[in-house]
Specification:
By secondary structure, the protein is an alpha+beta fold. It has two domains: 136 residues, Lysozyme, CATH 1.10.530; 270 residues, Fucose-specific lectin (Neuraminidase). Helix content is 15%, strand content 31%. It has six helices and 26 strands. It has a four-stranded antiparallel sheet with strand order 3-4-5-6, with no helix packed on it. The protein is globular and about 65 Å long. It starts with a helix and ends with a strand. Keywords: Signal.
Length: 412
């Protein structure tokens, strides 16, 4: 079988198997790699993997009861379809066809019976395969893999989602990094994001296992438990504080628009839609001073979109250009300054900046391959700390002290 498939590949001039896979391999990892290559992202990638498992066990060579149904997603091999995509027993071809026929993952029902079945006990339903699909998709998820916060100059905390589904962190108090430690408290469904309103205080937010926003906090003597702030979100939330006693939380809801809620020292507001149109990543938000917020997100065209608030309402989105994967990250080192970072479609880091009058062009950081969106913080003027996931799935780090960037090093 393998030699036959290899021969087919040579005929069409395409690669049948991912570099990391062999012909006898199958399962969620295969659908994940081909699906990501075809363009499926975030929740659409997870569902694509689950449907592939229900339809074929994610076997590239699989033929259905109807021999015309072929490959990972059981694409029916009509002559015009083969003419458009090539041999549908080739994984890349099957994935491209599934991506187009499902409207980029937005409409599976017309073509795939498995996509309309919610019975988690039935292996012929996509819902049965969702846990494994989510795990396989993890390395390809576009949004952040880690977050970071500083309570004061000389202190940093980095947070990530552990393999056990719990929040983990490590910290720096001016001399050396700690090891990774679990915060416990229960499972979450996104990497946690952190903010500090004042010294000795951290607020942590994440997507919960029910799709809501969950929240916990530290006031210097231990962590609270998680509690729900409601909502139905995609990806990870974003949070910012303009002053002590004030929090703003932003999240991409399942309608693909940004919603937010806020805390002014006594109680939480309700979730409110911000309008402005649909987006395709989790948001990032920064504040240069009290009363001023800057919001960044990936647009549906793959560019970075930006809007701002100066105390009397939000601007419309406008494009900062770029071709990026996943959520951008933003930071302000001082009033009048912004830096925006993003993972490009070539899986390297780019940034652009604002010094009070105009935006720079996008520039590369020459940092090698990265596998997540970045996270950035500032502990003091002219000081930035940048974090991202490397090809080894570890968190990597580099810093800027006004005279150029350090080399990157691993935090494990």
């Amino acid at each position: 079988m393998r030699s036959l498939l290899t021969a087919l590949v040579l005929l069409v001039g395409l690669t049948t198997w991912p570099a990391t896979a062999q012909a006898q391999d199958y399962g969620p990892a295969i659908c994940a790699e081909y699906g990501y290559g075809a363009g499926f992202r975030e929740d659409a990638l997870v569902k694509a993997i689950a449907i592939g498992m229900a339809e074929s066990g994610c076997r590239t060579w699989e033929k259905g009861p109807n021999p015309a149904d072929q490959g990972l997603w059981q694409i029916r091999a009509y002559p015009e379809r083969v003419a458009a995509y090539g041999d549908l027993l080739v994984g890349a071809n099957n994935a491209r066809a599934a991506y187009d026929l499902s409207a980029q993952g937005a409409n599976w029902q017309v073509h795939w019976a498995a996509s309309d079945c919610e019975d988690r006990g039935n292996p012929q339903c996509y819902a049965h395969w969702l846990p494994g699909a989510e795990q396989a998709a993890q390395r390809y998820l576009d949004d952040i893999a880690q977050s970071a916060v500083s309570m004061r100059d000389g202190h940093q905390e980095v947070f990530r989602l552990g393999a056990d589904g719990q929040a983990w962190h490590k910290w720096w108090y001016g001399t050396t990094w700690s090891g990774w430690e679990s915060l416990g408290g229960g499972r979450i469904a996104s990497p946690p994001v952190a903010v500090s309103m004042q010294d000795g205080h951290i607020e942590l937010f994440a997507r919960g296992v029910n799709g809501d926003v969950v929240h916990r906090f530290w006031w210097g003597n231990g962590w609270s438990g998680w509690h729900s702030l409601g909502g139905r979100i995609v990806g990870a939330p974003a949070v910012v504080s303009m002053r002590p006693g004030h929090l703003e939380v932003f999240a991409r809801f399942t309608d693909n628009q940004i919603w937010h809620r806020w805390w002014y020292g006594t109680s939480w507001s309700e979730w409110t839609p911000m309008g402005g149109g649909t987006v395709s990543s989790s948001p990032s938000v920064a504040s240069m001073r009290d009363g001023h917020l800057e919001l960044f997100v990936r647009g549906t065209g793959g560019d970075v979109l930006h809007r701002f608030y100066y105390g009397n309402g939000w601007s419309a989105y406008h494009s900062l250009g770029g071709r990026v994967t996943g959520a951008p990250a933003a930071v302000s080192m001082y009033d009048g300054h912004l830096e925006v970072y993003a993972r490009g479609i070539d899986d390297t880091l780019y940034h652009k900046w604002w010094y009070g009058s105009t935006w720079s062009e996008w520039g590369g950081l020459n940092d090698g391959v990265v596998t997540s969106s970045p996270t950035v913080l500032s502990m003091a003027p002219n000081h930035q700390e940048l974090f991202f996931r490397g090809q080894d799935n570890a968190v990597w780090h580099r810093f800027y002290y006004g005279a150029g960037w350090s080399v990157r090093h691993s935090l494990g």
